[in-house]
Amino acid sequence: MARKMVYHVLLAFLLLTIISVVSVRYEPNWDSLDSRPLPAWYDAAKIGIFIHWGVFSVPSVESEWFWWDWEGAKTKTVVDFMKANYPPDFTYADFAKNFKAEFFNASEWADIFQASGAQYIVLTSKHHEGFTNWPSRYSFNWNSQDVGPARDLVGELAAAIRNNTDMFFGLYHSLFEWFHPLYLQDKANKWQTQKFVESKTMPELYEIVNRYKPDVIWSDGDWEAPDTYWNSTNFIAWLYNDSPVKDSVVTNDRWGQGIMCKHGGFLTCSDRYNPGKLQKRKWENAMTIDKQSWGYRRNTKLSEFLTTDELVGTLVETVSCGGNMLVNVGPTSDGKIIPVFEERLRELGQWLKVNSEAIYGSHPWTYQNDTVTPNVWYTSLKISMEQMLYAIFLDWPTNKTIHLGVPKTAEWTTVYLVGREDLGPVNFTTLHPQGVVLEVPQIPPQELPCQWAWTFVFQGVLQ
Predict the structure, then answer these.
(1) What are phi and psi of 290, to 5 degrees?
(2) Whole-model pTM?
(3) Alpha helices, DSSP H, located in 321-450
(4) Where would you tag: which of 7, 297, 330, 368 has the fewest CB atoms within 10 A of its CB?
(5) What is the pLDDT of residues 73-87, one digit of tens each?
(6) Which residues contact 328 (CB under 8 A, 6 or more apart)?
């Protein structure tokens, strides 16, 4: 029932967005592009899945920056790893033949992502290594059709997501490539030439938009060159005005040196951005379950994965402060999502089945967290003209009463424990000028509505 409500809300928001933007044309400058309303499905969705997958998944050591660490930065641990395990004439391109994706089942991935409660996904179409996960016309012999899987990985997942789920489909794309000779030539020319942009970056972006019609374009690899070099504003103006996804697409803020955290559809500001307070613009916390890497690592330790408790806590804090959470998993080179990633995602979904009303479609409240009791975060949602306030406790209260410093209640206010409404209203004492003391329901641990983070809903609060 909760998911049906979410889909109706998203559909209504999308229709309103289409009506509002259909007659507007945007100019290729940031003032005009930033004036475009963010398609409302994105704010309502709250949760997405990020997928970092490529040739770097074959060595699967250190991180997805393996090639750069080996032959760019010459990081000692990576250089020593290659010397100890591969012959002297081995090249990074030699890894590609072992990027086979032989166990990749797009429908299986779609099932895991749907079970997580995520409302959109963002797949790496191309990382900084330049290998494209689709048969690009602009990446000869360095794409998933010509070498390695011999499959259109982007196309298969796009089809599975759209055919088997209600999620939105998005694509990550790196503007630059570490070792591409045309990029290095433009760099040497101090960005006065655009041979790489004209023959590689922009053709690829137009190609993936026209072919796969993604609802998210998540740009990266922008920081060395100005947005004028990348021709970013012209591409985004086309995306908003004339592309096949012009009414639904959202973009991030990584479109050139100095642009991040200032311009774009939503702001990312940095990796794992989680400011802990309300921001003026819509933002996204792109973060990882593996604390140290976006790509799969064979040598990861269990302690280096976020626990489900930490994952839920990050989601609650992010949404309370007006952000979306884009939670990353790194599949293996053979196309599997390892059990620890799957477990975290499915457990996140279990939590969301109970607490969905406090997350999907919600809005930041007057206060983001409580002023008296720590680890209590607030969200709000208007349902049938009634304002709902959700107090999400990251820790179950150990005492029989709990003091909240900011809700202002009235004689008609009622409070329930979400997921255990069968217990009836929670008793509370109103404090003046504001605040309440809740009588904590005395429930055995096995009868709590969920295992992590518990939500109390206030109906009829004054603020």
Answers:
(1) -75, 115
(2) 0.93
(3) 339-355
(4) 7
(5) 999 999 999 999 999
(6) 49, 50, 51, 52, 286, 287, 288, 289, 290, 294
